[in-house]
Design goal:
Layout lengths: L5 H6 L3 E3 L28 H21 L5 H4 L10 H29 L3 E6 L1 H13 L8 E9 L1 H28 L7 H19 L7 H8 L1 H25 L1
Antiparallel strand pairs: 1-3, 2-3
Helix pairs in contact: 2-4, 2-5, 4-6, 4-7, 6-7, 6-8, 6-9, 7-9, 8-9
Length: 251
């Protein structure tokens, strides 16, 4: 639990926010207009479930194709796809996407709901299209599938805790799977590959979202508590470098 200065919180004025990210809500599909009823904690709408399923499906396909290529040159020629790798790649991608992307977004959502805000995930069609294009054409995937949107009055510390919840969830998963990969399942395929991939994608996602850039989580965490941001970023980078070094040694 992150300590909060109660006196400063009481004095801090709540501000009305219409979007968690700096990108306009109009960039996302089906962002509701007008007055929104606050949902119960853990509540999902039909629209949100559809957006989550579409995003998970597209990212799973994108990562699956990316994993069929050994290098960038392979990715530039359709004939070089290793289609025999697709079934395992599909399973690997699905597990990675669910444990990283899905958990990250739901962590934002649940903390926002904790503070009494309307909060739902909305997919970002342009980001999903780019992820799919890169996954099919290259061995790299730049995933910007969407974001958890919220509306309501929120204090600065509440915004910061909503922002840090996503990366912290990824850091926790990476911290659990890293020792499992290094010391238990490293020489036990395919379990080692699965756990290693889950660790990798979570550590990368946490590090990327903690960067103090644009609509990412890092900026909002810094505005709230720079020490929390520094500790979170150092932890995420350490986990990411540890898994990268191990992958490099084994390859």
């Amino acid at each position: 639990m992150i300590p909060v200065n109660q006196e400063s919180n009481m004095a801090e004025e709540k501000k009305i926010h219409t979007s968690f990210h700096d990108i306009s809500p109009r960039e996302y599909m089906y962002f509701p207009k007008g007055t929104i009823e606050m949902g119960k904690p853990g509540q999902f709408s039909k629209t949100e479930i559809i957006h989550l399923l579409i995003s998970i499906g597209v990212l799973t396909i994108a990562f699956s194709f990316a994993l069929t290529k050994n290098n960038l040159i392979d990715g530039l020629f359709l004939g070089e796809f290793k289609f025999n790798k697709l079934p395992f790649g599909m399973m690997l991608s699905f597990l990675g996407v669910v444990t990283a992307f899905f958990v990250h977004e739901l962590s934002h959502k649940f903390i926002a709901q904790k503070y009494g805000l309307w909060s739902e995930f909305r997919m970002y069609p342009r980001g999903l299209g780019l992820a799919l294009l890169l996954g099919v054409c290259t061995p790299f995937v730049l995933a910007a599938p969407g974001a958890v949107m919220f509306r309501g009055k929120v204090r600065n510390f509440e915004m910061g805790q909503i922002a840090v919840a996503g990366p912290l969830a990824n850091i926790a998963i990476a911290a659990i799977t890293l020792p499992l990969y290094l010391f238990v399942f490293y020489e036990t395929p395919p379990m080692g590959q699965i756990i290693g991939f889950v660790c990798l994608i979570n550590s990368v996602l946490a590090t990327f979202n903690l960067l103090p850039l644009g609509p990412l989580d890092g900026i909002k965490i810094i505005r709230w508590n720079v020490n929390v941001w520094i500790i979170s970023l150092i932890t995420a980078i350490t986990l990411m470098m540890a898994i990268f070094v191990r992958f490099t040694i084994s390859s």
